[in-house]
User: What shape does this take?
Amino acid sequence: QQQVKQSPQSLIVQKGGISIINCAYENTAFDYFPWYQQFPGKGPALLIAIRPDVSEKKEGRFTISFNKSAKQFSLHIMDSQPGDSATYFCAASWGAGAQKLVFGQGTRLTINP
Amino acid sequence: ETGVTQTPRHLVMGMTNKKSLKCEQHLGHNAMYWYKQSAKKPLELMFVYNFKEQTENNSVPSRFSPECPNSSHLFLHLHTLQPEDSALYLCASSQETGYGTDTQYFGPGTRLTVL
Assistant: This one.
């Protein structure tokens, strides 16, 4: 029940296309859903995050769509660029205090020029 | 130095060795974390420290021993490890505000190989 399931494991998108990564969870106590981006040799970095009281959050070319009833959320990258090639992780946490993030398995995204 | 730094970046050790990983955050945060990143598994939270007090031990084997002497430094002491402990060990820090939406800032990790 603590798991966050992420798909696909890998994704290849043409430059200018839309990249979509999906995540699903079971624990209804989760109340914070961040996405992290990781480049080779670097630690993950926060990309965008959402609380379950909104269905969508957009920051530049990155959008999170959130479906509370289905317990699913997804990351959309519009106009994907080669510089977006990285591994993306969805995560979830609950409660106050220092976060205890539960991560998805990760998606390796490759944007072909 | 800025952000979160980790040393060493690479470590090879035998199963009978004792070594330590070091993490330092230069962000003035009050919470620090250890994660394990394996090739076949999601990022796994190992330990959480909040104001130097351990608030989470995610069923981690006792061969991993954390230490947080102050809010800027975090150590992971390793002894009698197994080959399956080979992984990237990531440190993170955050400013805990009580709202549960704090951003965690990660270091680059220590790549550990256990022979």
